[in-house]
Amino acid sequence: MLYLWTILGILGFVAILVLTTCYICFRRCFYTDRKNDPKENEFSIPDGEIYEPYRDQMINWMKEVRAMPHEDVEITSFDGLKLRGRYYEYQKGAPIELMFHGYRGNSERDLCGGVQRCFALRRNVLIVDQRGSGRSEGKIITFGVNESKDCVTWIDFIISHYGKDSRIILTGISMGGATVLMTAGKNLPKNVICVLADCPYSSQKEIIKKVIREMKLPENLLYPFVKLAARIFGHFNLEETTPIEAIKNCKVPVIFIHGESDAFVPCQMSRDVYAICTTPKIIFTVKDADHGLAYLVDPDGYFRTLRHFCAENNIV
């Protein structure tokens, strides 16, 4: 009997240790209770000294975007969350870029420059706060798994709200880039005519393991706990789909953009997904650009790449 109780005690201790480790991983990776929705006189800038040289430009973009006429829009996600966005119209009937921000970001912080870019290209634009960010509901970030399902709902919203002939370009930066690549592998309506992925990761597993490795922790030991944490506490499968797998089923042209000096999401990740893609594609890399800064470092090259590729593939 003592032997049995000893075994049960050991098993109970192991179970508690596993659950505790998973919960810590869940809180660190997936849980968010901050909305990052700046107040009227606040301007949210990404953390890190790499963004300091561009602070004034980012703030100017935010001020300009806040002053622009827009429509506040809202959808309900497949799991009941209210997700919100802002629609900026350049011209009725113009293509609409549906834009997604990065991990723990928000639409204004990450996408305000995208609004200006879209207008320069004579496009309309809908920037959205992903689940758990900005003005949208939710407390769990799923690294693009559920966010890609939200993207499909936003596509349906555009078609029903702005017309069945709407032409849609899926655009995202960082985790948003991974989100649109995962969406591209789904059975999408013909309204979706192109995908633009700026500094996306190739898979959730690889980017999470990279971060663990940089924390000087054992990546191969801890990653299974992260994956289990997503299942137990987040109620989703972290590896349900990945950008590099989803791109195999993509049916539209894809533009990959990445900074070659990206210290967070290695440029090689975009190159890996690009190599798998079988539709018309282009990859544009910027030599001195760190994470998410390709447009700020080389706006002329960015525009030139988009204009040339879109003209070549009749994306109008």
SSE-based structural type: alpha/beta
User: What's the helix count?
Assistant: 11
**Overall geometry:** globular
Round the Cα radius of gyration to an integer and report it: 20 Å
N-to-C order of helices and strands? HHEEEHEHEHEHHHEHEHH
Percent in helix: 40-55%
**Main sheet?**
8 strands, mixed
Q: Please, what is the average pLDDT?
A: 94
The count of DSSP E runs of length 2 or more, i.e. the number of strands, is 8
How would you write the strand order of the largest sheet?
1-2-4-3-5-6-7-8
Distance between the termini: 76 Å
| Proportion of beta-strand residues | 15-25%
**Uncertain parts:** none
Short description:
This protein has 316 residues and is α/β, with parallel strands linked by helices.
Chart the SSEs and their pairings:
Blueprint: H1 2-29, H2 55-67, E1 71-76, E2 82-88, E3 96-100, H3 107-120, E4 124-128, H4 145-162, E5 168-173, H5 175-184, E6 192-198, H6 204-214, H7 219-232, H8 243-246, E7 254-259, H9 267-276, E8 281-286, H10 294-297, H11 299-312
Helix pairs in contact: 1-7, 2-3, 4-5, 6-7
Report on the architecture of this protein:
- Helices cover 44% and strands 15% of the residues.
- The chain has 316 residues and is α/β, with parallel strands linked by helices.
- The longest helix is centred in the first third of the chain and has 28 residues, at 2-29.
- It is globular, with a radius of gyration of 20 Å.
- The N and C termini lie far apart (76 Å).
- The mean pLDDT is 94.
